[in-house]
Amino acid sequence: MNPKLAAREGMLEGPKRGLNVSQMNSMQLKKEFNRILESLGCKEKGIRSALPLKHKGVLFETEDDSTVNWLRKKDNAATFCSTIGSNVAFKP
Question: Under a CB-based contact definition with an 8 Å cutoff, are residues 65 and 40 in contact?
Fold first, then answer.
């Protein structure tokens, strides 16, 4: 695995309520996540791709390191996850 690429990946687990990621395709997830990031004040480039996983999770890749670094900040990650829905967890 390319370590540079791995640095730009993250995973969301959940949600049980709220945004139902199991019903969204990759393009819809990418658009929704970028909309949420923008509404939260993230000035970074955003999400490049989002892949829904079988068990209510989403694997995503950011455009560059600065977006995932923004998400790694505890407050930013918590707000991003709570905006998506309850019981959502960010795993860098």
Answer: no
